[in-house]
Design a protein that fits this description.
By secondary structure, the chain is an alpha/beta fold. It folds into three domains: 115 residues, SPOUT methyltransferase, trefoil knot domain (Alpha/beta knot, 3-Layer(aba) Sandwich), CATH 3.40.1280; 42 residues; 137 residues, 3-Layer(aba) Sandwich (Alpha/beta knot), CATH 3.40.1280.10. It has eleven helices and 14 strands. Strand 6 and strand 7 form a beta hairpin. The radius of gyration is 27 Å and the shape is elongated. The two termini are 35 Å apart. The relative contact order is 0.09.
Length: 336
């Protein structure tokens, strides 16, 4: 929509001098008229977005939120910006596309519309391509190559020409991890990393039969960890656990589910000596190419005798074990 259509006077004025000296500022009444017009045409109040250097840096999560809105109106600012009173009362989201200044809001608006459009079914031919794009899961994309296989002395990685789909998929995941950790390690904190790590298992060291196995199984299933392992030290306890939950994978010791290629992550509810914060555990999981076993216990002291690394999730002490495990898996595996 052309803001000039809502200008005032013979010259269709949209701006005026800033109070207290400064440049020109887009006036609130004209902007309000434009937004009201959008509401009348669509029948619903628009979700108003204002691209501005003062806004929060836009991200893929922001775009996904906007794509879910029924009616979006983007205000394209000019000059010194727009009257702050309009921003406070009518703008739902003020965003920045980067730490630089443009002459107007049209280019940021185009960026936002293009990014949103990719999430509309049918806009991109292959919906899988959208999911695999950089930032959709929070990770960078893997390198891509095309013919010729040899160019200026540089060759395509042999795995990509070998035809083994499983090996190609593994290579792509590994390269996406390497790129992200090297170029944009800041992304790891909000990335969904479950698809970039190998097999994930959850083991619970049980000291009695009070573990809620049904809840535990649901949590593990939601995070792609399969059925949980129950580590029961006595024959009687193992028999009791199997009787309560016939499909449980009940073992006598954690070593039964760990081999030389396994990363063992002992998860504590408190910040113990040599423990790692959840983001550091996440990085360790991404760097590891083998299986990962997260080990929990009703009493964290039981974990001290085990090898591997220790991670902790703050403020989870005192919560039911299944809740602690759900919070921990979310922090470590990064469900978006």
């Amino acid at each position: 929509m052309n803001l000039r259509d809502f200008g005032r006077g013979n010259y269709r004025q949209l701006d005026d001098y800033a109070f207290g000296s400064g440049g020109m500022v887009l006036a609130a009444p004209q902007l309000k008229d434009a937004i009201d017009s959008v509401a009348r045409e669509s029948g619903t109040k628009p979700y108003v977005v204002y691209p501005s250097p003062q806004g929060a840096l836009i991200s893929q999560e922001t775009i996904e939120t906007l794509a879910l809105q029924d009616n979006v109106a983007i205000i394209c600012g000019h000059y010194e910006g727009i009257d702050e009173r309009f921003t406070e009362r009518y703008v739902d989201l003020e965003v920045s596309v980067g730490d630089f200044v443009l002459t107007g809001g049209e280019i940021p608006a185009m960026l936002i519309v293009d990014a949103m459009s990719r999430l509309v079914p049918g806009v991109v031919g292959k919906s899988r391509a959208v999911i695999e794009d950089s930032f959709y899961r929070g990770m960078l994309d893997n390198p891509n190559y095309t013919r010729p296989a040899m160019w200026e002395g540089l060759t395509v990685p042999e795995v990509l020409t070998g035809g083994n789909a499983q090996e190609i998929s593994r290579w792509r995941r590994r390269e996406a991890v390497r790129r992200t950790l090297t170029r944009r390690p800041d992304l790891v904190s909000r990335a969904s990393v479950r698809e970039y790590v190998s097999g994930v298992k959850v083991a619970v060291i049980a000291e009695d039969d009070a573990v809620n196995l049904a809840e535990l199984a649901e949590v593990c299933g939601a995070y792609g960890a399969g059925r949980p392992y129950i580590v029961a030290g006595t024959h009687e306890l193992r028999a009791a656990m199997k009787g309560m939950y016939p499909e449980a994978k009940v073992v006598g010791h954690v070593s039964k589910i760990i081999d030389d290629d396994t990363l063992t992550v002992k998860v504590s509810a408190t910040a113990r000596v040599n423990a790692m914060q959840s983001l550091e555990v996440k990085r360790k999981c991404l760097e590891h190419e083998g299986d990962i076993v997260f080990v929990f216990a009703q009493d964290d002291d039981v974990l001290d005798g085990l090898g591997g690394i220790t991670g902790y999730v703050a403020d989870s002490e005192g919560l039911p074990l299944s809740v602690r495990i759900g919070i921990s898996l979310d922090r470590f595996l990064g469900k978006r």
